[in-house]
């Protein structure tokens, strides 16, 4: 094939350089101009597309491969045809193929097992989607610089032969046959016997090839090798590879049995799924020598060709069966009699280079924990960690995930991201969108395939297969929302938090799928979960407690018992970080819930701190930059009072003293007054109040309404206040003339999405705000009064703030990155492309988590306390035995 010169355009891709060549085509480094990223472009021979049926089958297979989303499979981005030559565009990898790896070293046994597990996990994900590779070999296995295994070239095998099922021997898929005497054979040595015969193949052909690759990793030599193509193919059909233990005595027999079980001549006698291989290899954790030989269950007995005497095989099988029976009885005893033993505690640390914002969920069977973690790049993903493993793995495709929850069979994980509800197979696979959502305040899944989740008018139900959500509960007139649902064991009844504007209005409620009505169980301000043998778990004043609960009578009794102290709050709306399985496994993360105010420059360099860590709920910097008005949170994570901070001294003084929820202060332009929200009237709504910033005099009701109102900005001329108005649903951005006597006016109406955080430009001609109209939070600017509208951010944004000269607009995205958009023109309004200034650690549940000085040179950030981020996940097995009276 002719080499393509650098600079050549193929579709939207510009060729940069040639990086490889093989029997199926030439690989180039190319640049994707649309998405501004480098990719790998594999250009295939033109003759392979001359048969339209073969090309169509290739396109179908490549499209299916492109749908795969797994960390151990090369991501396929695009396919096309250039000058009659098909091409495939995929992610660009840095590292080497396994063949190149073999050329300069043989991996250690432990490393071989690690690679093999990753390879099998990738195959399992593909096979589940009905995709068979057909050409697993070291050349198609890539080891990245981070030692992650990637399977290459899914979809190309079908292009290499016609569609007929019975293939002549000379047309065997993807073989590279060289007939010169003495030449070592290429991919012929990795074919399954059914491929050699030209018979129909299924996913088990990949399992045979996997076995040949694993054999080579462990022994340093090929499983099937001959001096000619015919000899190699005959060896696959009729011969057995040399015993691994004969030349590598440090390989454990249990590991060798896994290899032989893959290399069975008959597909029926092999492992029947790649997932079974994963299980078998993971069971070998730590096994590298004959001195350590755990029993592998699920494997058929190895035949006498393994040089084992029949009597010895029977004896070993009997011992294995006995161990299996004893283990099963012990496990059943552990599940059925938890009260008879002591609690066992262990800690799970955050994966390397990540922090734990929280949101833990334990699988119902108690075998795995899923949690969210944020990487050094600011991206938040789901991670899964088997409790019998030392390693957590990210769940691909779950960027931005929040509030995960399990299916009752412990297979699927539901979660929320970008205003949608998703489910994903915890073992790996592409996330599946179920429906649109307007809130992400918890979900729960019953055995009938019903999912409940929080919505603007109550809880909603939707099928686990997706569909249109249906309202499941009605909100009481004194409540604001229904959140954090949790199914009880019968799958019909559920518990949840009735959220309200006053402390006494919050309740744990009991609902049923048979009615939209619900009843109060008790007063609490927290998410809640049911835990056998009969408790409701929730957080009270920072402590996780267990309230006795009768699932037959559906009633609570007695006093709550303390389970753990200082359970971490991880988000807004009373989310606390704990989860419990149905068989006695509890997981939680501790933390103060506090934030440290940190000064940072425009590069993110830490300049100093202000005061001690505290439970901040919002930050508002005074016009002169000398003080900050902060809304504080109580131990239950709700707004309590407003305080003033002297930023030079770090001292703090209380401004409001009412026994109500008060917060979100906004300064007048002269710094003499503050407007804030308070529910002190007791009618269940948060109203706007105004008071002197020096603390003298009483707060005055500014705007009574039947909504929740939250001030966000006061114009520099002092004439107009911007505020967000919420009711059963977010209603929009409003303005109030501060001269008095006028009714508020709506500026931005939200229909099917949310708008908030509006702030005036210094000259009062514009206001910036956050809107989710595009499906994610983004920054927009409108003229004031509204006439024109301009988008500013492109990769997410919230909390817009202006520099005092009006020449910059700052905002942060969901990953905590701080951006600046320079104003190119004021009339008409125009900005430059926003530029990232720095990555910030920002506490997610804070309503206004940062402020910026007038000159835009320094940022005051509410950062999570470092010790909280470092706190591991605590797992307690048989947790109920550790209950103690508070």
Q: What can you see in these coordinates?
A:
It is a single chain. With 886 residues, this protein is mainly β. The protein folds into 4 domains: 92 residues, Phosphorylase Kinase, domain 1 (2-Layer Sandwich), CATH 3.30.200.20; 205 residues, Transferase(Phosphotransferase) domain 1 (Transferase(Phosphotransferase), domain 1, Orthogonal Bundle); 262 residues, Neuraminidase; 202 residues, TolB, C-terminal domain (Neuraminidase, 6 Propeller), CATH 2.120.10. It has 11 helices and 61 strands. A 6-stranded antiparallel β-sheet has the order 1-2-3-4-6-5, covered by helices on one side. A hairpin with a 2-residue loop joins strand 2 and strand 3. The radius of gyration is 31 Å and the shape is globular. The termini are far apart.
Layout of helices and strands:
Blueprint: E1 9-10, E2 13-22, E3 25-32, E4 37-43, H1 52-67, E5 76-82, E6 85-91, E7 95-97, H2 98-104, H3 109-128, E8 141-144, E9 149-151, H4 193-197, H5 204-219, H6 229-238, H7 244-247, H8 253-262, H9 274-282, H10 310-336, E10 344-348, E11 354-362, E12 368-375, E13 380-386, E14 393-394, E15 402-406, E16 412-417, E17 420-425, E18 432-436, E19 443-445, E20 450-455, E21 458-463, E22 470-471, E23 481-487, E24 493-499, E25 507-512, E26 515-523, E27 528-531, E28 535-540, E29 543-550, E30 555-556, E31 561-564, E32 569-571, E33 575-576, E34 578-580, E35 585-589, E36 595-601, E37 606-614, E38 616-621, E39 627-633, E40 639-646, E41 651-654, E42 662-667, E43 673-678, E44 687-692, E45 700-703, E46 708-714, E47 720-726, E48 730-737, E49 745-749, E50 755-760, E51 766-771, E52 778-783, E53 789-791, E54 798-802, E55 808-812, E56 817-826, E57 829-831, E58 835-839, E59 850-852, E60 858-864, H11 866-870, E61 873-877
